[in-house]
Amino acid sequence: MFSNTMRGMSRILQTLRRKCHTRHRKKPKFGTRFLLDKSKVFSFNAWDDVEWDEEQEKEAQIKVQANSEVRFPPNVIERYENEADKYWDAFYDVHTNRFFKDRHWLFTEFPELAVGDTESKKILEIGCGVGNTIHPLLQQSKNPDLFVYGCDFSAKAIEILKEAPEYDNSRCNAFVLDATQEVWEVPFEDNSIDIVVLIFVLSAINPLKYKMEQNRELLLVVFL
Which of 6, 66, 153, 154 is 20 to 30 A from 49 (CA-CA)? Predict the structure, then answer.
């Protein structure tokens, strides 16, 4: 009887978790999320009709300033900068593909990424990691004319991505690239990409490297 009670409790908890977690909730598309009931303000990370007041903006600026303070000596900063690829490889050595979750919310926020069955599209993701964007893209569409390129600074991340059972050489090409370099060696022709994706990438790059010339326009295009 006790075991039956525990199984019943477990089912109730699973149901509550599904109802409460945003992953299990039908999400309105970008541009249609309006805060009509202020008691539900925490239902989503962002609302389309809510603007910060002066106090909130000031508080945000204070937090940004505090977060921007340099707390390491120059020699440590230089080491992390010069050996960044080694630190990213070490990160993926430890976490492999278990740290970040697949981004199935992409198609709600950016419906342009939901490629139709008759469309021909080439997508490039800069900073693809172990494929948390690439896998959902290929799973969402079985269109043989969809091809996804993915590049990352970490050779270990690319290795893990290519070893995944979802990786399909006929629909995807992942390669190592330092996106801050002025000259890129890439497996596609100029002006052949339809959509460029960058997620959590620019925040990991030294702002001094934003001043690159040849690839500036490409890096500033998050979604076309």
Answer: 66
Tell whether domain 106-220 is in CATH 3.30.565.10.
no
* pLDDT tens sequence for the chain (224 residues): 545 544 545 554 455 444 444 444 556 666 777 888 888 888 777 777 788 889 999 999 999 888 878 788 889 888 888 888 888 888 888 887 777 777 878 888 888 888 888 889 999 999 999 999 999 999 888 888 999 999 999 999 999 999 998 899 999 999 999 988 888 899 999 889 999 999 888 888 877 776 554 454 444 444 33
Alpha-carbon distance of 163 to 95, in angstroms, equals 15
Q: Which residue has the tokens 């370099």?
A: 181
What gap in Å lies between CA 118 and CA 140, rounded to an integer? 14
Instruction: Name residue 174's beta-bridge partners.
Output: 150
Question: Which of these, 133, 181, 195, 131, lies nearest to 160 by C-alpha position?
Answer: 131
Instruction: Concatenate the DSSP letters of all residues of 8-54 into one string.
Output: HHHHHHHHHHHHHSGGGSPPPPTT------GGGGGGSS--TT----H
Under 8 Å between Cβ of 88 and 157? yes
Cα distance between residue 112 and residue 137, in whole Å: 11
Cα(181)–Cα(215) distance, rounded to whole angstroms?
A: 8
The two three-digit tokens of residue 76, written as one number: 């440590």
Contact 143, 76 (CB under 8 A): no
Strand 172-176: give its sheet, edge to edge: 172-176, 146-152, 121-126, 195-198
